[in-house]
Design brief:
Largest sheet: 2 strands, antiparallel
Strand order of the largest sheet: 1-2
Helix content: 55-70%
Order of helices and strands: HHEEHHHHH
Strand content: under 5%
Distance between the termini: 68 Å
Amino acid sequence: MNGWARRLPGVLRGLAITAVAAGLAYALLVLVFHARVPYALCLAVVLVVVLGRLLTRAFTPPPAGRALVREDTSATVYGVPDRPFADVRRWEERLDLMRGDRDYYERVVRPAIAAVVDERLRVGHGVTREEQPDRSRELVGARVWDLLTTTQPRRPPSPGELAAVIAEVEDL
């Protein structure tokens, strides 16, 4: 059975529904509004509406597919996190929220940077900031150390300064 033979019952059903809809529209116009409208005009209008609907359905793009990764960032498959960039997005959101907000910087961003620095020092060098502050300062660098240890209220770092700090942290 070829493609047209398979589609013929659907096409005939669609034409029958269109003819019935045109008949209902004609009856409504004649009986309710007492309008003298030819049936062919009603049929043409209904056909245009139905074909317009079919064309818009045919040419609209399909809905966006679901993400290929799970949204559950805590789940792991074979010991590997499913979303490798979830942490990057979280950092991006944190840094984006920080723009000029000193309280947010002190409450969220600076402790997060400190946690990453502590982790890098512990894993990469076997050092902690609390136990060996001199060695930690030497490894981290003056700029990052000042950022982490300064207790005086100060303005949050600019995006450029923060990028330089992040680059130094990445080099640990």
